[in-house]
Specification:
This protein is of the alpha+beta class. 51% of the residues lie in helices and 20% in strands. The protein is built from nine helices and twelve strands. The strands form three sheets. Strands 2-1-5-4-3 form a five-stranded antiparallel beta sheet, with helices on both faces. Strands 7-9-10-12-11 form a five-stranded mixed beta sheet. Helix 6 packs across helix 9 and helix 8 packs antiparallel against helix 9. The protein is elongated and about 165 Å long. The protein starts with a helix and ends in a 6-residue tail after the last strand. Bound molecules: adenosine-5'-diphosphate.
Length: 409
C-alpha cells in the first residue's frame, strides 16, 4: 500500500519535472529569440548612431559654411535675435563702422557705438516693416555717424528661424556710388541744357534757309536742308529725354493735371504721325466718351513714345493699331504693332533707365533706352499702369491704364 503511494508520488514528481523541463525549454527558446531580437536592435542602433554622427558632421559643415560666408562677404552683415540683440557681426561690419567685437556681440542694436545705430529709419524697418513682411530689400537709410561721418546705406533684411527667430541684416555703403550718380546727373543736366540753345538756333536758321531756297525753286538744297532739320529734331528729342530723366531723378517732373479729352488727343497724335509717316497706317479704334484727369502733354508724350517704338520696331509691317476703351474706372489705351516683339525676360526690364534689349534684329534701330522709362514714370505719376504683352516674332501690345477720376491726395 505504502509502496503504491510512493510510486504515485514519484510518478507525479516525474511528470512535474517533465513539464518543468518543457517550460524551461520554451523559456529557453523565448530567451533565444529575445537574444536574436536584441542583437538586431543593437545592429539597428548602431546604424542609427552612425547616421546621427553623419548628420552631426553635416550640420557642423553647414554651420561652418554659413559662418565662412558671413565672415568673408565684403558687405557688413549682422545677425540679430528677435529682441534685436546682435548675435553675430562680420569683419566687414567691424571695419566699416569702426567698432570692436567686444562691444558689439550681445548688445542691443540701438545701443551699439554710443547709440549711433539708433536711426529712426532703421527703427521703422526693424520694428514696423520687417515684422509684417519677413523680407525687405533695398531700403535706403541716410545717417551721420559720429565716427565715420555722413553715410548712405542700402539695407536688406530677412527673418529666418534657427534657435528661435533671427534677423539677417545686410548693409551696403552706397555713399560713394550716390555721389558719382549725383555728379553724373548734374553733368547730364548742364550738358543737355547747354546743347539745347545752339540746336534751337541752328534749327531756326535752317528753316529760314529752307524757305528762301523753296522760293528760288532749288529742290536738291531744300531736300538737304530737310535732312538737317529732321536730324536737329532727333537731337532735340534726345536732349529733351535726357532733361526729363534728370527731372524725374530729382523728383522735379512737373505735371499740370486737369480734365481733358483723351479721344481728341489720341486722334490728334494719330493725325500728326500720319502726316510724317508713310511706311505704316496708324489705325485708331474705340472711344471712351468721357474726360480723363491728367497732364495732357505728358500723356501726349507717352502716346508719341509708344507709337514711335511701334513703328521703329516693326520695319516689315504696314500698320499700328491704337485702341481706346474704358473699364468704368480707367481709360485703357492699347498700342499694338506687328513687329519683332519682346522676349519674356526683357519685358519688365525695358522700362528701366537706359535699358535696350540685345537682340540682333534691333541692333540697327537707333535709340537711347529712355522713352519707356520716361513713359512709365509719367503714367506712375498719374496713379496708372503701363505694361507690355508680347511674344518674340509676333509683335507687341503696350497697354496703359489711366484712372478717370483724380487720385491725387
Ligand atoms: P529706345 O527705343 O530708345 O531704345 P525705349 O525705352 O523706348 O528706348 O525702349 C527700350 C527697349 O525696348 C528698346 O531698345 C527695344 O528693345 C524695346 N522695345 C520698345 N518698344 C518696342 C516695340 N514696340 N517692339 C519691340 N521692342 C520694343
Amino acid at each position: 500500500m505504502q509502496q503504491e503511494a510512493t510510486n504515485e508520488e514519484l510518478q507525479s514528481a516525474n511528470e512535474e519535472i517533465l513539464s518543468s523541463n518543457e517550460e524551461l525549454q520554451s523559456i529557453n527558446e523565448e530567451l533565444e529569440t529575445s537574444k536574436e531580437e536584441l542583437e538586431s536592435t543593437n545592429e539597428e542602433l548602431l546604424t542609427v548612431n552612425e547616421e546621427l554622427q553623419n548628420r552631426n558632421a553635416e550640420l557642423t559643415e553647414a554651420r561652418d559654411y554659413a559662418q565662412a560666408i558671413i565672415r568673408t562677404v565684403r558687405s557688413p552683415l549682422l545677425i540679430l535675435d528677435k529682441d534685436l540683440r546682435v548675435k553675430t557681426a562680420n569683419r566687414a561690419f567691424f571695419q566699416t563702422f569702426q567698432v570692436d567685437e567686444k562691444n558689439t556681440e550681445g548688445n542691443f542694436i540701438y545701443d551699439l557705438g554710443k547709440g549711433q545705430w539708433d536711426i529712426p529709419a532703421l527703427r521703422k524697418l526693424l520694428n514696423e516693416i520687417l515684422p509684417k513682411n519677413n523680407v525687405f530689400d533695398n531700403y535706403e537709410v541716410e545717417h551721420v555717424f559720429p565716427s565715420i561721418g555722413h553715410k548712405i546705406m542700402l539695407l536688406n533684411a530677412r527673418k529666418f528661424y534657427k534657435d528661435g527667430e533671427n534677423i539677417l541684416l545686410a548693409i551696403e555703403d552706397i555713399t560713394e556710388r550716390k555721389s558719382y550718380e549725383n555728379q553724373k546727373d548734374e553733368f547730364i543736366g548742364i550738358a543737355s541744357h547747354e546743347l539745347k540753345t545752339p540746336i534751337t538756333t541752328m534749327k531756326a536758321f535752317a528753316q529760314i534757309l529752307q524757305k528762301r531756297l523753296g522760293q528760288s525753286g532749288d529742290k536738291k538744297d531744300v531736300y538737304l536742308l530737310n535732312n538737317i532739320n529732321s536730324q536737329a529734331d532727333r537731337l532735340t528729342n534726345i536732349i529733351n529725354d535726357l532733361l526729363d530723366v534728370n527731372k524725374i531723378e530729382a523728383g522735379k517732373l512737373e505735371l499740370h493735371k486737369k480734365k481733358f479729352d483723351l479721344d481728341a488727343l489720341v486722334k490728334k497724335v494719330v493725325v500728326d504721325f500720319q502726316y510724317t509717316v508713310d511706311t505704316h497706317s496708324i489705325i485708331k479704334a474705340g472711344k471712351i466718351n468721357e474726360l480723363v484727369y491728367g497732364d495732357e502733354s505728358g500723356i501726349e508724350q507717352v502716346l508719341a513714345n509708344l507709337i514711335t517704338n511701334a513703328i521703329k520696331y516693326s520695319p516689315k509691317a504696314d500698320k499700328v493699331v491704337l485702341n481706346i476703351l474704358t473699364d468704368k474706372r480707367n481709360a485703357i489705351v492699347r498700342v499694338q504693332d506687328f513687329g519683332f516683339g519682346i522676349a519674356k525676360n526683357d519685358q519688365e526690364r525695358i522700362f528701366e533707365r537706359f535699358y535696350r534689349t540685345s537682340d540682333k534684329e534691333k541692333n540697327n534701330v537707333s535709340g537711347f533706352g529712355l522713352g519707356l522709362y520716361i513713359s512709365s514714370e509719367i503714367i506712375k505719376r498719374h496713379h496708372g499702369k503701363l505694361w507690355v504683352e508680347s511674344m518674340t516674332g509676333e509683335g507687341s501690345t503696350f497697354i496703359f491704364l489711366l484712372p478717370l477720376k483724380s487720385q491725387d491726395k
